[in-house]
Design a protein that fits this description.
The chain is about 75% helix and about 0% strand. Helix 2 crosses helix 9 and helix 7 packs antiparallel against helix 10. It is mainly alpha-helical.
């Protein structure tokens, strides 16, 4: 009885004992993979669009920009709706729209504006999925918030990472209609997610437990107030914007550089992009675990510090070295994915949907803006110079990570699990949900 009282007393506490619900997170992660797979296909499709519609690098950058505007920048709007009402149906619906839109862009479009419109539609599906997805992932994460969030995020990283290689192979084998390979995955994922989340939604407003969870879901106590909280979230959003410029810019220009400048085959270029992006899945998982153990801010600092040399070597080496540079660089750049999200949610925990939209939506979506600017650099000074700029951006992100404050609650949550589980109800922070 005392134990149950302790759990309820710490309903909003950052010190938690509930285990990560891996079954639910596995389903959500698979849905995340199916949703992000079409977006991951875009870098591999850029050479196809360039040759078919005779586009400049700036026009290709516009495709990436609009894809990111629809898939990410619009996400805060869905996040606000997610905070105010249950819209669980957006997850399965968003997955289907994301896949169908990309299929239409490649297989049905006949003109450049139609391609852009269909990719924009696909991005809207992605935007609809993520705020609700991160809300449910947070509910299922239990004690290890960064670890649980990384389980969910790794699906998206893998989908985004496998997209270039899978798309290259599918189109090489079956022509442009090969892009339909993602549709069966989307349908399966939508059905699975519906079966997981609809029982929880049907339990009525105010329900806090996911099906299969042992206890009510809990959110952290706000660790900072007023302007300080806004300032920290602003720093984190800026950090993720820079990280996104690095990820999207590198992924977009690897195939353009290796096929257009070094005249290597498209399969090799697709492999490099997939290694770079798929490595982010492992980076996200390891980063979340490491952040829960050693601290969130520390993970941001380490990941940005090791990035520049590998990004600089990537276009300047041959043989196995570009693959290794893509592998390590991809792990480093995406290892902060879930960590930054958890840090921002801990700052303003009562607005999880909005925070998810800002961090994963707006901030990540701004990567498209960076790619458009890089397109201008590539048109004027060459693709290699554009890639050199992406290699310098992590230094700016590192500077931001260094000025982020050490949050006592975050650091306590990063303590070993044995220490957390030993806390009694009297030790747990009080607070209402």
């Amino acid at each position: 009885m005392r134990r149950n009282g302790a759990r309820r007393g710490a309903l909003s506490g950052i010190v938690e004992d509930d285990p990560v619900n891996r079954r639910i997170l596995a389903t959500l992660s698979y849905g995340h993979l199916a949703t992000d797979l079409p977006q991951g296909a875009i870098p591999a499709l850029l050479p196809l669009f360039r040759s078919e519609y005779h586009l400049s690098y700036t026009q290709l950058g516009l495709i990436v920009l609009l894809a990111n505007v629809s898939s990410s920048v619009i996400q805060p709007l869905f996040g606000v709706l997610s905070d105010r009402m249950k819209m669980y149906w957006l997850m399965p619906a968003g997955t289907l729209v994301a896949s169908a839109g990309m299929l239409l862009a490649v297989a049905a479009a006949r003109q450049y504006p139609t391609v852009v419109a269909m990719i924009f539609l696909s991005g809207l599906g992605v935007a609809a999925f993520h705020p609700e997805g991160y809300k449910y992932a947070g509910l299922a994460s239990g004690a290890g918030r960064a670890t649980g969030m990384s389980y969910f995020s790794v699906g998206g990283n893998l989908g985004y990472g496998l997209g270039p290689l899978a798309t290259t192979v599918a189109i090489a084998s079956w022509g442009k209609y090969g892009i339909a390979y993602g549709l069966p995955l989307a349908v399966t994922a939508s059905i699975m997610m519906w079966r997981v989340v609809s029982p929880w939604a049907a339990s009525g407003p105010g329900a806090e437990a996911l099906p299969g969870s042992a206890a009510p879901a809990r959110r952290p106590v706000r660790a900072h107030a007023g302007r300080t909280a806004v300032w920290i979230v602003g720093l984190l959003v800026t950090f993720v914007v820079l990280r996104s410029w690095v990820q999207v810019g590198t992924a977009s220009y690897i195939p353009l550089y290796f096929t257009g400048v070094r005249h290597m085959n498209a399969t090799y270029a697709g492999l490099l992009v997939s290694v770079f992006l798929a490595a982010g899945g492992m980076g996200t998982l390891l980063g979340g675990i490491a952040a829960d153990r050693w601290g969130h801010r520390t993970m941001l600092i380490i990941s940005m510090a090791i990035l520049p040399p590998f990004l600089w070597l990537l276009p300047r080496t041959a043989g196995i070295w570009p693959v290794l540079a893509a592998l390590i660089g991809g792990m480093a750049v995406v290892s902060t994915f879930a960590v930054a999200m958890v840090m921002a949610q801990n700052v303003i925990p009562e607005r999880i949907g909005l925070i998810s939209g800002l961090i994963i939506g707006f901030a990540v979506g701004m990567g498209g803006v960076g790619t458009t600017l890089l397109g201008g650099i590539a048109d004027r000074w060459g693709v290699l110079r554009a890639m050199d700029v992406t290699a310098l951006l992590p230094a700016a992100a590192l500077a931001i990570a260094l000025v982020l404050p050490k949050d006592a609650r975050t650091e306590r949550n990063s303590a070993p699990r044995s220490r957390r589980t030993s806390m009694s109800g009297a030790d747990a922070p009080a607070g209402g949900s």
